[in-house]
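Appendix B. Chain record.
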Amino acid sequence: MVHHYFGTKEQLFVAAMELPLNPADMIGPLLQGDRDRLGERLLRTFLSVWDSEGMRAPMLAMIRSAVQEDQAAAMMREFIQGVIVARAIETLDVDHVQWRASLVSTQVLGLAIARYIIKVEPLASAEPDQVVAAIAPTVQRYLVGKL
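Structure tokens predicted for this chain:
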């Protein structure tokens, strides 16, 4: 039924969460360019999505559902780790793809919760450039650095 109505689990997730776009479609452009700045591009993209009025409400609902419901958590986990992060990391020819995907996930989910849900200051009101400068080196190491 999933394949008939939605094509893939990924498309089902996007429809169920009522996302205006499929975040997995952003992977290709992220991977283009200097590998040494991938963490920065990933965070800039992440922040631009969350700072977009059309995306923030569905993303907030997605995280809140995942925190409260096991099924929503499983869907989100599979989508973030398996579809978005792992798919990107697999193209980088690095070891420990799933481990790296889980580490990157901790950074972006933690950032989303602290900045947009709990609104921890001064992070919540910091300029995107400041957030990227602080967090991108860690994400970069998780993506392609030594673990």
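Further analysis of this model is presented in Appendix C.
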